[in-house]
Amino acid sequence: MKKIVTLLSICLLAIPAIAQTCCTSGNFELLALNADFKASHADPLPMSYAPVAGRMVEFETQDAGMKGKAFYVPSDQPTTKVLVICHEWWGLNDYIKQEAERWQKQLGNVDVYAVDLYDGKVTATADAASKLSGALDKKRGETIIKGLISLIGMNKQIASMGWCMGGSWAFTTALLAGNQATGCVMYYGFPEKDEKKIKTLQTDVLYIWASKDKFISREVVDEFGKKVVASGHEFDMHAYDAVHAFANPSNPNHDRLASAQAEDLSLKFLKAKLQLD
Q: What is the pLDDT of residues 104-127, one digit of tens each?
């Protein structure tokens, strides 16, 4: 009996350490299953959005029999400028579609693609989002993005942007875009840890960090920034006095002021990188 109690005590003591590891290591698969992380994400406020200029498109991927999907918002005129948006752990919902149209309107002569990393799955509960994001196959996600890049074409400049889980995938998009990459905006995305991958980066990074974020430490972001700079590119980190997911308009705890400030900075960054000014 004493052995059982001792073992149970060790397991209970280990839980905070496990949580701390996943919350600072950049391992989103572990973090997605963390109870505190789930609790920090309020379920999205209900909304129904009828797209004005965008539509869903499909494209081929290297996975046999499986196509990729994205919400496409075209420019009013032919363009070689593209923004790829990566959704949060809720999936490609109406909020992301609305954001895709809004960012296209603000940027102007740019085609916008909001990529669907969940192959059509969308949720509005943290429990389901935890399962979807934790089970996301990295190879499938990369295959989808590669398929989207093929659809975009080789003669285009590609900027990327995303929030939380999507922030991490925005960085992956920048890596996969190679010399087509021209700017990456990561809203509190989990930093890449693999230095070999970071060395292949071919563009600058703007990182939006929440100083009250309990899941991504300043130290982890700073270390990531050093590796980006070592790859020969600029890393610009801006901190806001806000919590994780502060810029999500579907979040009941949405911070309008911090979101507006971060958006203004991101807009200027993307316009400069895509040479839209």
A: 999 999 999 999 999 999 999 999
- pTM to 2 decimals? 0.89
Q: Determine the Cα angle at 51 with ends 48 and 54, to 5°.
A: 145
Locate the domains of the chain by residue range: 2-273
Say which CATH class 2-273 falls into: alpha beta
Those residues with Cβ within 8 angstroms of residue 137's Cβ, 6 or more apart along the chain or in another chain:
none
What is the distance in angstroms between the CA of the first residue and the CA of the last residue of the chain? 72
Q: What is the largest distance, in Å, between two alpha-carbon atoms of the chain?
A: 74
pLDDT-above-90 percentage for the chain: 77
